[in-house]
């Protein structure tokens, strides 16, 4: 297939927007088109002069961009046969990865390790089963629908829109994109907004899955304290281009912090003034402990906020339902991008989610007292067995952010694993390279399991403190 110069120019869009040499900007945009499949392998690209003429640049700019992609293996150039797309590079398999370990810690295990690294409900609630019972008969009424819904099924988009409207954020279905969980939502946003060389602003520490979604698109992550404290000064004094800013404003992962209303208002105003897209990860927002009030959603303070939600933490991870709430042009752009990779999610699951979503607050309130009891139980066990550890209480969420009195979380995580407990070392959650003295553990397990986990952690800590297990860093595959 030969690509017409004008057609390629249309696909390139505003490729020259940004800083840096034109050939690098052109190479970056072509790279994304190749990697995302919009320029399939084998496609013949326009000759240097023809593309340069359409783009109104010198021929040397196109030659240099093509040469850059040739060196990366994404295109091939042979005299007489033109320039062809070779496809994205195919690196060989790696033994380990810095990405969240969805296979290492999420796959079923047949050993006796207690998993305190991954926080999510351990079984679907009865309310979910009821939702499926109500959803299944709806399939019998489906006609003239082939089942592909890249933006999400209209029933669920309407339910998510009503959910936000009920929380004080007026929303229409056209402002909602349904995704296969929150992780896909973050990956789509990273692909849509982050250009190679661009900078993403994150909290330190933060959710490691978000860090890896952004690292897939850029190596430039810049960290600010939790709540993006210092954001206004950052955008005022730095000349580095910001592609995105990301935070978990309510029941922060991993610290449990909640951003106050005044700070929310100031942050949203500053991001809008600087034209920086602001992503608010709301996946834990509904998980307040009893008696705790939370501020309005970040999106209530400005229409430009992009909200990410999911039912994985509040209902069950196996449901794989998430969403993005954003201005209509953003949703339309994300839907086009998703269609390249994924023609839509499971319709039955979306119908069940639409039945369940109006009752989400009730479900979260019903389990809040039990989560409080488990939170208190784990903290009491840690205080009894490991009084040197600092494990502050939280007002919501699912995890404790524990400071170790000595050593580091990476080497202790390896020791803990040898003693039958998987914990998450803090360094994998911190793009600044800090938080090495922390570990993250969840409190969702049954009380007797939490008691046994605390006993094993104490045994591991004594071995670690005796020096028998210090100095061996945990593998990067512990980060999830």
Task: Fill in the keyword field for this structure.
480 residues; Arc Repressor Mutant, subunit A; Aspartate Aminotransferase, domain 1; three-stranded antiparallel beta sheet; 16 helices; globular; pyridoxal phosphate binding; pyridoxal phosphate; transcription
Strand-helix topology:
Elements: H1 5-12, H2 22-35, E1 44-45, H3 48-55, H4 59-71, E2 75-78, E3 82-85, H5 102-106, E4 114-115, H6 126-139, H7 154-166, E5 176-179, H8 181-193, E6 199-204, H9 208-215, E7 221-225, H10 231-237, E8 242-247, H11 261-273, E9 278-281, E10 306-310, E11 322-325, H12 328-341, H13 347-356, H14 360-385, E12 399-403, H15 409-418, E13 421-422, E14 424-425, E15 438-442, H16 447-465
Helix pairs in contact: 1-3, 2-4, 3-4, 6-13, 7-13, 8-9, 8-12, 14-16, 15-16
């Amino acid at each position: 297939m030969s690509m017409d110069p004008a057609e390629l120019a249309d696909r390139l869009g505003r490729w020259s927007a940004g800083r840096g040499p034109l050939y690098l900007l052109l190479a970056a945009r072509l790279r994304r088109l190749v990697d995302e499949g919009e320029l399939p392998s084998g496609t013949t690209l326009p000759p240097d002069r023809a593309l340069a003429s359409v783009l109104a640049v010198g021929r040397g700019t196109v030659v240099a961009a093509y040469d850059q992609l040739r060196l990366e293996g994404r295109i091939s150039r042979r005299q007489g046969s033109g320039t062809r797309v070779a496809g994205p590079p195919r690196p060989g398999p790696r033994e380990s990865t810095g990405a969240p370990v969805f296979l290492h810690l999420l796959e079923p295990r047949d050993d006796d390790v207690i998993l305190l690294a991954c926080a999510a409900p351990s079984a679907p609630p009865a309310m979910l089963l009821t939702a499926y019972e109500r959803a299944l008969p709806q399939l019998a009424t489906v006609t003239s629908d082939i089942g592909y819904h890249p933006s999400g099924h209209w029933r669920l988009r309407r339910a998510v829109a009503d959910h936000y409207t009920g929380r004080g954020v007026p929303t229409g279905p056209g402002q909602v994109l349904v995704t296969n969980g929150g992780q896909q939502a973050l990956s789509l946003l990273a692909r849509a907004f982050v250009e190679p060389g661009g900078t993403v602003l994150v909290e330190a520490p933060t959710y490691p899955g978000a860090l890896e979604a952004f690292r897939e698109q850029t190596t430039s992550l810049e960290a600010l304290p939790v709540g993006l404290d210092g954001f206004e000064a950052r955008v005022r004094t730095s000349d580095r281009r910001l592609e995105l800013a990301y935070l978990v404003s309510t029941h922060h992962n991993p610290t449990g912090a909640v951003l106050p209303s005044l700070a929310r208002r100031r942050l949203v105003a500053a991001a809008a003034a600087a034209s920086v897209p602001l992503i608010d990860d709301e996946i834990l927002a509904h998980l307040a402990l009893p008696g705790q009030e939370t501020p309005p959603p970040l999106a209530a303070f400005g229409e430009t906020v992009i909200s990410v939600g999911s039912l994985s933490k509040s209902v069950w991870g196996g449901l794989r339902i998430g969403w993005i709430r954003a201005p209509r042009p953003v949703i339309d752009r994300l839907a086009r991008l998703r269609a390249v990779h994924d023609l839509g999610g499971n319709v039955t699951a979306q119908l069940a989610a639409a039945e369940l979503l109006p009752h989400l607050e009730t479900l979260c309130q019903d389990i809040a007292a039990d989560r409080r009891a488990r939170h208190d139980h784990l903290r009491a066990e840690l205080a009894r067995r490991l009084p040197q550890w600092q494990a502050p209480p939280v007002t919501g969420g699912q995890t404790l952010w524990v400071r170790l009195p000595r050593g580091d979380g990476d080497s202790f995580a390896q020791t803990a694993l040898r003693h039958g407990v998987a914990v998450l070392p803090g360094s994998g959650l911190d793009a600044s390279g800090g938080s090495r003295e922390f570990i993250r553990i969840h409190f969702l397990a049954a009380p007797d399991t939490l008691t046994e986990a605390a006993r094993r952690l104490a045994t591991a800590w004594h071995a670690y403190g005796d020096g028998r297990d210090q100095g061996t860093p945990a593998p990067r595959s512990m980060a999830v």
